[in-house]
Amino acid sequence: MMTSDFIVDVSEADFEYEVLKYSQNVPVVVDFWAAWCKPCKALTPLLEQLAHEAKGAFRLARVNVDHNPNLALQYSVRSIPTVKAFSQGRVVAEFVGIQPESRIREFLAQLTPPDETSLEIEKADSYLISHQWSEAEAIYRQVLEKLPGKPAVVLGLMKAMIAQGKSREAQYILRNFPASREYNQAMLLSPLVDALVHLENNTLPNETDLDATFQTSIRLIRRGNYPAALDGLLDILRQDKHYRSDRARQVFLGVLEILSDEDPLTRQYRSELAMVLF
Question: Among 172, 168, 164, which Cα is nearest to 222's?
Fold first, then answer.
């Protein structure tokens, strides 16, 4: 077997470094093989040839399943040869068995190195989860200068802005949100943004005690006191599950969207909402 800067043999001991971490910058194609496997004897040399042709566009990592059974088990390798492509530490494509060279070339052509801004986005997302809103906003804006209109980044920016009380600008972005898989997630924020804008305009309904509680909850959201705001919205829902055409429930879900699924408050209050509604 050939070895080079583009081709390495990896084991259970160095798989994390040579494959998972390496794939943060360059795609890694892992060839799960064994000495007794006849199709492997045809596929592996072809993969090596293509790796040399690619000149570093991807790395080929070879894993002998007999010597590394735990890796085969971890990645559900049930037949060999199995080829799995990794990018940013996770499997993004795979195939099993010998394939025509043309199909393998197509498989490799689909692999692209991680976006150069991926680390910046990851950092901004981390700031968002830890409620460092202004820091997250600054990085999202920097990324959007390089990748204008990227939906996931626009969504993150909008959340950071809402959390800082920049509801009018967030409303403008929301109304122009690009069609994408993030679109429905963005629309969950619409009732919350509208309520915050109405608060600024002093146009929230103020006819009943529940209206007063709703208005107080929106003020608490604007101040960043999410637990108190969510408690207030739950009080409304206990008395009227469909308050003003489900507005309280929709705003409640919008706040959870701002907090993210990783926040313990989200799990706690999602459970409490379910108990109130069901």
Answer: 164
Please identify which of the residues 37, 71, 121, 221 carries the catalytic annotation. Answer: 37
In tens, the pLDDT along 137-188 reads: 999 999 999 989 999 999 999 999 999 999 999 999 999 999 898 999 999 9
Residue in 114, 113, 173, 121 with CA at minimum distance from that of residue 149: 173
Q: Is 58 exposed, middle or buried (0-12, 13-18, 19+ CB in 10 A)?
A: buried
Point out the catalytic residue in the list 30, 40, 160, 230. 40
What is the length of the chain? Answer: 278
**Do 93 and 85 meet the contact criterion of CB atoms below 8 Å apart?**
yes
Helix, strand, or coil (residue 54): helix
The pair of three-digit structure tokens given for residue 81, joined into one six-digit string:
């040869």
Q: Give φ, ψ of 215 to 5 degrees.
A: -60, -40
Based on the residue annotation, tell me whether 209 is a catalytic residue of this protein: no
Note if 40 is an active site residue.
yes
Q: What is the DSSP letter of 263?
A: S
Model confidence over 55-99: pLDDT tens digits?
Answer: 888 999 999 999 999 999 999 999 999 999 999 889 999 999 999
Burial (Cβ within 10 Å: 0-12, 13-18, ≥19) of residue 109: exposed
